[in-house]
Design goal:
heterodimer, A: nine-stranded mixed β-sheet, three-stranded mixed β-sheet, B: alpha+beta, three-stranded antiparallel β-sheet, globular
């Protein structure tokens, strides 16, 4: 058996290929009672006819893990998470919008010693003692840059492509829709009840923004100054 | 008319957010209710009709009958369009 500690939880998982490789930094000492056991489901590889077995395994283990996370006040947010000055900033958007491009801009603008990518695709948000933390996860997309860290969340920003840079706080339930749009929504009552409870807490406690941005360094300077409160 | 079972309601960001369960969740099926919407939603958990709802709304809200009826019909039509009615 292989033992991991992901998002502060004891996780057992037998896997291979890129999932095994990307989970390597989360390995830990053996434990008795797992919080989450990720079930191998090779019979579902057919669900992804255009994917290799390796990629199907990556998708299936991810969805099993993220589904089981909710019982621990934690959820996945499809986003690129960057940390700077002890805070995590998550940039969320549909695939192809430029999440990774934007967080890479942070690295090039502020330097690798100041800003680091926590996870480039599916970081975990977890509520502990009433506050929200971002964690890395093995499901970091094509990027293998992933950090096994726990960082207080400074803000979440939904990215849209724009010619000019503009950022503003989401008001009211718009933030709820924005978060729901980029997480796993499950099907059953228990899952969705937990999901709404968690999203409700996130929008109450974490500032959520929407940003239209281009790919110039000014975009990183703007999102950082607004989200870190250093206007 | 009556609302189907299996919806999850949660008060957040100043509104009541409603999602169905048991199906893939298209975000078009996630709706928000204001106070009046929530009032109607609760009364539509059991079989009712526009006349009954109108009378109930008039008891609680300071609104004329025609406006109340129009609002309720619009609300019910929206729920029907979403396939939320049993």
């Amino acid at each position: 058996m292989s033992f991991y500690k992901i998002a502060g939880l004891k996780v057992r998982m037998e896997t291979f290929g890129r999932t095994l490789k990307q989970a390597e930094i989360y390995r830990c000492e053996p434990f008795e009672d797992a919080d989450i056991v990720v079930q191998p489901r090779p019979e579902h590889y057919d669900c992804f006819p255009r994917f290799s077995d390796d990629d199907s395994e990556y998708m299936l283990t991810g969805s099993d893990f993220f589904r089981k996370l909710l019982a621990f006040d934690a959820m996945m947010l499809h986003s690129s998470a960057v940390m700077m000055d002890g805070r995590a900033y998550l940039f969320s958007a549909p695939s192809g919008t430029g999440k990774s491009t934007h967080t890479k801009l942070w690295i090039s603008t502020f330097g690798e010693d100041k800003a680091q990518i926590i996870n480039d695709d599916k970081p975990v948000l977890r509520q502990e003692d009433g506050a929200w933390y971002a964690y890395g996860s093995p499901w970091s997309g094509k990027s293998t840059t992933s950090l096994n860290v726990r960082v207080p969340v400074g803000g979440i920003c939904v990215l849209r492509r724009g010619e000019k840079n503009h950022i503003e706080r989401y008001e009211g339930t718009k933030a709820v829709f924005a978060i729901m749009d980029q997480t796993m929504r499950g099907t059953n009552v228990q899952f969705r009840t937990n999901l709404l409870r968690l999203v409700g807490s996130i929008v109450e406690k974490v500032p959520i923004y929407e940003m239209h941005c281009n790919m110039e360094p000014e975009a990183a300077l703007l999102s950082h100054s607004v989200m870190s409160g250093n206007l | 008319m009556r609302i189907k079972d299996g919806f999850i309601l949660r008060q957040m960001a100043g509104s009541t957010v409603v999602i169905p369960s048991g199906t893939d969740l298209d975000l078009n099926m996630m709706i928000t209710l204001n106070d009046t919407g929530r009032f109607l939603w609760e009364r539509m958990q059991t079989e009712t009709d526009v006349d009954t709802l109108t009378a109930e709304v008039l008891e609680v809200y300071d609104i004329d009958e025609e406006s109340a009826r129009g609002y309720i019909e619009k609300f019910a039509a929206k729920l029907k369009e979403l396939d939320f009615l049993a």
